[in-house]
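Memo to structure team: turn this sequence into structure tokens by end of day. - J.P.
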Amino acid sequence: MDPTPPTPIDPSASSSSSSSDPSPSPGHAIVCGAGVIGACTAYFLAKKGVRVTVVERCSVACAASGKAGGFLALDWCDGSPLGKLARASFLMHQRLAAELDGAHRYGYRPLDTLSLVVEEPRSGTDSHHAGGSEVVNASTPSVLPSWTDGPVKGATPIGNQTTTAQVHPALFTQAVLSAAEAEFGVRVIRGEVEELRLDPHRMKLLGVVVNKELIPAEVAVVALGPWSSNLSSISDLTRISGRKAHSIVVRPKSSQDLTPHALLLRYKTREGKQLAPEVYPRPTGEVYVSGMSEEAELPATADQVKPRNEAVAMLRRVSETVSSHLQGAELETAQACFMPLSEDGRPLIGKLPNVEGAYVATGHGYWGILNGPATGAFLSELIVDGECKTLDLKYFDPARFFRNNARRKDCFL
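Reply from structure team:
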């Protein structure tokens, strides 16, 4: 059977039409993956004048980039290696929202953020919503939005509209990639990335094998989330794993009372189980609820990830407990995704050791949407200028795994 050639893909949809393969030319970069990291990398590379092709097997933002909460925080990573990256990226989100009309195109808005302690009432007790019994810690009643009328035992502000914000992650990723296409000529094609083809004598990138065909390029960026380890260029260096996370999107009958708040819960079920769900109303009138994560086997492709029914039922139960406004809300989406995790908890952002032209950007865990813009911008600076002067990327250098594991060195020598 003849190999299937890569075909163009519409960033706002999963359908695509056929077209000829991109031809080789100096300064051609291939970004593998059309999630938030790949989209931002393509955008900033192309903005610097690089000819960019993005290759995506499924659809734009089909994995965690389309199913995350889209929560952004300025200073929550302070004191960790992620601190400066996160601060820079939070400010980049503000600038991108201004440039791309983010408020209307992908729901960018500042938020007030609360930490709530919620305990489900035991079976047989009175109604736990307003007009019933216990509701709010008397010391903090004023911080609770009116629609949060469930059995809240305590409420603590942990972010305000200067330090926390949100985007709709799928719409954000699509908007960035669409802007990269329209403004800078980025090309997005459908296909399976099978290999980074190297010149074995010089350890220099020749191109990327997509659907059994080599697309020549001087630069390749692997941004495939937990599927990055499917490429031997990555798996020979380190392991990128995935943790399965569930979420739902519900649409209440009326959203006029839903204020711009993010709720991070310490939630105790009536059976005594402790959970850490999160509830984010969106400006579109829907409400995103997440918090059921677990170890699970990574399927072959992102479109094969399916939610577990018990997890979906629990998230519905959480939403209806926290707010009477969410009782009977329409379930628009029940979904799951895999958050990409590195071996040491830090993302990989940089050049693959001893391979000219090959780069990786993955392993961002639960902060991928937040850190997407800075990752794309700083990696582009490294690729085009030869170094990143804006931020020292040493904490994220993929070579840290090369240096720490003598066995893996043999794979790159």
